Amino acid sequence: MTEGSRGEGSQKEEIMAFEHISVLLYETVDGLNVKPDGIYVDATLGGGGHAYEVCSRLGSQGRLIGIDQDADAIRAAGKRLECFGEKVTIVRSNYCDMKQQLQKLGIDKVDGITVDLGVSSYQLDTAERGFSYRVDAPLDMRMDQRQKMTARDIINDYSESELYRVIRDYGEDRFAKNIAKHIVAERKKAPIETTGQLNEIISHAIPMKVRKTSGHPSKRTFQAIRIELNHELDVLRDTLDDMIELLNPGGRLCIITFHSLEDRIVKSSFRKNENPCTCPSHFPVCVCGNVSKGKVITRKPILPSEEELEVNSRSKSAKLRIFERA
């Protein structure tokens, strides 16, 4: 059932509790229009919530390929989905390698793909993963712990101008320049090792009146460092066209984003694939030869219901967009 998740000798035999409430669960799986004999990919498998719902709608000939780069997610999802037996194949990889991973499995086209770009509750709540600004832990933030570079390396090794760029572009923080300046000043005294230290530095870089009236001062910087470390926006931007190409006619791509930068990339890509014509607007007919790949199903993104928001506050910023292949 599982590929690429063996040989972790030092890992616990016991499956760790991978708590993650699947955001927009039914809206996403309904949006796939699951065919009983179809082939589907959950590109960000996580705890397997979306995958479980997809599998429950598959017939005996249906198949699901789950992809995730997090070893804890692989183990948890494997346990959760084992009741579906041979219908499920799990691969430890980044979804940017989806095409190659599917080719290894003898699959050229699929009937649907889901992508949930959120950080799982497990990753946020497991202190030693270093994703959260609410607990003191080593600066890590790696989605794939086989990766050598960590958040600590970015904080201590990037130049002030590079830190400013990351925090400004990926965190959209108006105090990015001051935060970068404070980080560089503090690390000259001693390396910055923990989320707690970084929290303290960020707090001092933001005016008191802003801290009192806005959300947590570290939220945007932590988001920015995480995105930079894991190349999240680059992977998304570089993979969207490939995912659309992988779809059979009528196949659907369902993507859940959690902040404006992701959503902007998805929205733009979907529009471009629906209408790739580059001819000037005054041309009476298209002569560029670019052919539409399909249509955008969601003219406006699907948002969580009030009921979901009450149960899972982390779904607050989620947006679902759907594209259907021609």
List the helices and strands and how they pair.
Layout lengths: L1 E2 L21 H8 L6 E4 L6 H7 L7 E6 L2 H11 L6 E5 L5 H7 L5 E7 L4 H5 L25 H7 L2 H12 L4 H12 L7 H11 L2 H6 L5 H12 L1 H14 L1 E11 L2 H15 L19 E3 L9 H6 L7 E7 L1
Parallel strand pairs: 1-4, 2-3, 2-5, 3-4, 5-6
Antiparallel strand pairs: 6-8, 7-8
Helix pairs in contact: 1-2, 7-8, 7-11, 8-9, 12-13
Describe the protein's architecture and organization:
- The chain has 2 domains: 2-122 and 232-325, Rossmann fold (3-Layer(aba) Sandwich), CATH 3.40.50.150; 135-230, DNA polymerase, domain 1.
- The protein has helices spanning 25-32, 49-55, 71-81, 98-104, 121-125, 151-157, 160-171, 176-187, 195-205, 208-213, 219-230, 232-245, 260-274, 306-311; strands at residues 2-3, 39-42, 63-68, 88-92, 110-116, 247-257, 294-296, 319-325.
- With 326 residues, the chain is an alpha/beta fold.
- It has an 8-stranded mixed beta sheet with strand order 1-4-3-2-5-6-8-7, with helices on both faces.
- The two termini are 32 Å apart.
- The chain has 14 helices and 8 strands.
- Strand 2, helix 2 (49-55) and strand 3 form a beta-alpha-beta unit.
- It is 41% helix and 14% strand.
